[in-house]
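Possible race condition, two jobs.
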Amino acid sequence: MIQIAVVEDEEIYVKQLTEYIRKYQTERGRSIKVTVFGDGEDITENYSGGFDIILMDIQMQFMDGMTAAEKIRQMDQKVIIMFITNMIQYAVRGYEVDAMDYVVKPVEYFSFSQKMDKAIGRIRSEAKEFLMITIGEGIVKTDIADIYFIEGQGHNAVFHTLRGDYSSRVTLKELEEKLIVHNFFRCAKGYLVNMNHVEGIVGSDCVIHSVHIPVSRTRKKEFMNKLLQNLNMD
């Protein structure tokens, strides 16, 4: 099921967009769930990262769409954002928040359906699996493939990722059980590594993006077997 958020404060456009989505769903045979937010504040507050596409009005009363998109991008780098606007001069700023496109008001169904095809095509081509990382009072949606390794620090786990480091109150044991199917390996008591990012072995360490990570003696043989399997797959 495709999850779409409509962020719009004018009821006439909320009604039009939801009707267009229903029509599109019927024509394309898609399963789509729509969630409506009346302002940028509403979607950014307690944002959980569960949407595939966000249709965002730019001009809203309390929090404008550009500000809301910037906040969402801090938590979710993968969701597709399309602006709904009659102010083209603001829509072209969409590159700043990696917006895919914009829809001009008044919205015409044919143009809307073409842009939806493009958005859903991107979702299908980028079919990835994500991990929701709880950080403080927020959540970061991270592509599992972008996690290099995870380091245990007391009661916390530090995720070293393509987009930076995130600390979360979770145990490596919990993460190991969840990520083992994604080719992660517990190479030492305090480290869980993504084998897809391991570049090699130097002494008793494995190397991931120039970072040396210890491999315990008791797990060295199994680690080497997994590394060889990865090399053969490549």
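Job #2 (started ~2 s after job #1):
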Amino acid sequence: MGKVTTGSTTMSLDGYIAGPGESGFDLLFQWYGNGDVEIPSASPDVPAFRISAESAELVEAEWANTGALVVGRYLYDMTGAWGGRHPMNVTTVVLTHQRPGDRPVDDEDFVFVTGGIEAAVAKAKELAGEKDVVVNGGQMARQCLEAGLLDEVGIELVPVVLGGGKTLFGELGATPVEFEGPVVVVEGTGVTHLRYRVKK
């Protein structure tokens, strides 16, 4: 069985995954285009990434071992459903209160779950088989951590200070939470990749 992880969450030096008013993404994601190795995107709306060789070695291995994603309805709507397919080219489980009107049935691109974070992760695990489940978005990461479902946290630390905005775990209910590691440290160009295990 694979692990449940936040995947690669890009974060500023002062701990924000988005700046005030959903700003700062151009600065946070500069590392997606500052290298020579192309990582293809399955989304028609998201171009291929061009990252450093060091980053690419890690990203390619993690993407290859990802079997399904879990996202919230907010991220799904904000990205326009990635044009119909997530860049990682796996089925995306969307946790929502109500299914979008333009998607009456589930398919290989998107599955919609209304029964809470436990049900969403369970469905993603079923889809992923032996591979990992990646949870995207701060609210989903917080809910997974609070429910004891999260095994690993992935941080892409970039050299920028945003001064405010959204943190990865937001208003986490049960603190403090301890982690082991970093169990992985990779220095890319304009980014340091860190992986931590959740202590259980």
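The longest helix spans residues 53-64.
Logs attached separately.
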